[in-house]
């Protein structure tokens, strides 16, 4: 059997009862499972049975103001992923953590520890966070501006990478005879002094199996794309059509090459909401069933937040109030999501109600309902057209949307030779075909400064 | 069989290859295990077989400057405890986290998550941290003064308790029919505005099984004892003799009563380094064997740090340079440990070398080498004399010191009726006989302020 060059990478984005906003109301949903470890254990084990590269747990640093109508609370990413490390063998464990609201020393410790615990399966989705409500949970009045957030984010990533490199591979001597445990000349402090952060010492954990977690990034604004091209190894992105995805793919890979990076060291994985039916009709029926459970008050609230415009007084069956919308410059927070929503509504002439229903399943991510073979066709086409290196899977209803995918779509992908039938490596970087400890351009993997011991 | 009123509580303090500073050099030690999850898994499972109340993982926020001669690095507490939650069923999971170098919102999330994951087995050892070297890993020039640290610590505990109470028990409605997931009137923001910290919003996790982790504290200075009497549910302490321990016990319980607390809601657990032999001679031999492995350069360095006095120029076989020591007021950091060391050297007229050897096994904690029956005698005497409610066990060599204790001492304690033969409860508070969600005096467990939703 000939093996094509390109193979899909799959990441399972776990979100409580599923990515459809109304999933918790579905007859098969168990909304109380959002804080139940056994529920997450089973999901992770199913994804591992499906030979996926990684699971992914997102994180917010505030309670959503839409909690009245939607289950959002879920377990905290780093603690949950650590527990799941003990319940799985091979699958990657990727979690979100913010560069705006964490201390780099502590975050470096936690990800290094997760990488040790899991034998090299950690991944870090780097976010800069959004919103004053979050800032006010962290002893601050207001959130940093978009550009400042990314500048602080750059400093943060630089510091934690220095910390993760602070023990050279041969720093552990462990010579019982002489009583020398570590060679202190092979351990170096971060010695970082920046505008936002300063960290002097070395990490208090020896180098982890991957040296550092796979760096994931999900910003799709101009600042976000540049940040990702500089340092991300995996990019999550929301793209509505294959054409848009291909343009994004070409843009970001080109930026990476211009920065001296190999474009193969950057995997682009758009979000994908698959709805699997044994017939196309059954899949469409499943999609309708979920959409009918959506609470319109919730949808209007979310869309108002994204567009930073109060839509409660607008007729639901009319168009967006395009003239009243803020300009992109005025948007604080998720600029790319704003653009995607306005663009989608304009292109397809959607009413507010239609836009809400259209995005209820995956918050603007690409959604497709069909048979296993149709879904595999779509994924294969995106892969071969260089619109994606793989997908960030967002089943609308969990666990059944995942079970359907693993039982029905995965064998279809495997039989086409575009997806692994067994794990070949042990670490997440190996699953993704990434070089161990790939470096930011211009920075060496060698100890950076003199010992502080 | 008559059951006495008082029963021992046991906590296993896990520290890499053991609490003896030279344990890693022992022929049976595996120093590479310090970052090996399976090693910790087996230790936790052995402690659970021994029906212990909890395991305990400490945390530092800097690399020890003694790394040349001692294995200190171990996995990070919250990630490791979360992984161990998935590998155990009943034992408590207690970890250190600092009130000086964490953000309360994120720490509250992580402990609430651990409590959910483990079904109510989380414990938090509250520390305020020490030293400028730590501060310099957290974008600060120097460490807060002793009193300021405790003041910030009080604010921190107040904030996280508000966050842990932000969801009332009946806030989760989950009514699929009406589409109401949560009753937003039963979720309250922290609305805390202090000198050091301000946190406005509600936690984004529903109330955990224990509402909040068991609060543990280990300060033994005046500030530390007062802090503990105010809010701790468990106190770890270093005491050299039963008489000193009894005086400490009476002092802290009295302080708690004066603050309106029930003294039964505060469990005092001195550190205890047991060395188990089938004969007394074998136990003493084990102790000598470990002490002979100690590196004197390491011991002098540690003692110099504790006394904040350079001892490298002093004759090892002479006394401490008492006149050159700083006064207690001048000590920044661990005041109680300073007092304990000076007091021990004076009382027993120890040379510097003797003091180093005497404290090599447990850094000043009570150490006893004997047969299982002799060790049980000591523990029973401390318990019945109200010198302790239990012990924080610090085996000098792991895993074998733990195996010995569980296989030989635990049955002895059980046959005397002073230790459980089976877990009766599910949560750590149940193991410890603590009321669920005991409150700081003067603070109500009810939602504290108006909803911010």
TrEMBL record, chains A, B:
The keyword Transit peptide does not apply. Pfam families: Bac_luciferase (PF00296). Its EC number is 1.-.-.-. GO terms for molecular function: oxidoreductase activity. The keyword Cell cycle does not apply. It is an enzyme of class 1 (oxidoreductase). CDD domains: Nitrilotriacetate_monoxgenase (cd01095). Keywords: Flavoprotein, FMN, Monooxygenase, Oxidoreductase. Residues 24-291 form the Luciferase-like domain. NCBIfam families: FMN_nitrolo. PANTHER family: ALKANESULFONATE MONOOXYGENASE-RELATED, C2H2 FINGER DOMAIN TRANSCRIPTION FACTOR (EUROFUNG)-RELATED. Belongs to the NtaA/SnaA/DszA monooxygenase family. This is LLM class flavin-dependent oxidoreductase.
């Amino acid at each position: 059997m000939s093996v094509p060059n390109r193979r899909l990478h799959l990441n399972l984005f776990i979100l409580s009862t599923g990515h459809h906003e109304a999933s918790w109301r579905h007859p098969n949903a168990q909304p109380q499972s959002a804080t139940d470890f056994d529920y997450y254990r089973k999901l992770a084990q199913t994804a591992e049975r499906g030979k996926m590269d990684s699971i992914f747990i997102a994180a917010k640093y505030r309670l959503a103001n839409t909690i009245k109508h939607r289950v959002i609370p879920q377990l905290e990413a780093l603690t949950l992923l650590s527990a799941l490390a003990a319940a799985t063998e091979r699958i990657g464990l990727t979690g979100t953590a913010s560069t705006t609201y964490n201390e780099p020393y502590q975050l470096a410790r936690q990800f290094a520890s997760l990488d040790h615990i899991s034998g090299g399966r950690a991944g870090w989705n780097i976010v800069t966070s959004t919103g004053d409500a979050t800032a006010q949970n962290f002893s601050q009045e207001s959130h940093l501006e978009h550009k400042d957030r990314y500048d602080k984010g750059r400093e943060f990533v630089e510091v934690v990478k220095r910390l993760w490199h602070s023990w050279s591979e041969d720093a552990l001597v462990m010579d019982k005879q002489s009583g020398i445990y570590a060679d202190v000349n092979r351990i170096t402090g971060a010695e970082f002094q920046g505008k936002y952060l300063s960290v002097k010492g070395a990490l208090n954990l020896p180098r982890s199996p991957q040296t550092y977690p796979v760096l994931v990034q999900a910003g799709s604004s101009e600042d976000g794309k540049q940040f990702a091209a500089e340092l991300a190894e995996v990019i999550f992105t929301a793209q509505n059509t294959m054409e848009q995805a291909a343009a994004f793919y070409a843009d970001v890979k080109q930026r990476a090459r211009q920065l001296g990076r190999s474009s193969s060291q950057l995997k682009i994985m758009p979000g994908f909401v698959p709805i699997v039916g044994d017939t196309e009709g059954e899949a469409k029926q499943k999609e309708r069933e979920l959409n009918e459970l959506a609470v319109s008050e919730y949808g209007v609230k979310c869309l108002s937040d994204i567009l930073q415009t109060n839509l409660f007084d607008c007729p639901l069956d009319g168009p967006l109030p395009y003239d009243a919308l803020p300009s992109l410059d005025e948007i604080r927070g998720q600029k790319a999501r704003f653009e995607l929503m306005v663009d989608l509504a304009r292109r397809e002439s959607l009413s507010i109600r239609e836009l809400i229903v259209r995005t209820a399943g995956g918050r603007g991510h690409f959604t497709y309902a069909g048979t296993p073979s149709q879904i595999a066709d779509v994924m294969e086409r995106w892969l071969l057209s260089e619109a994606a290196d793989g997908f960030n899977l967002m089943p609308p209803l969990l666990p059944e949307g995942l079970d359907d995918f693993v039982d029905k779509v995965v064998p279809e992908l495997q039989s086409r030779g575009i997806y692994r039938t067994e794990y070949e490596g042990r670490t997440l970087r190996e699953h993704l075909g990434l070089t161990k400890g790939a470096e930011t351009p211009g920075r060496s993997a060698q100890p950076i400064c003199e010992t502080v011991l």
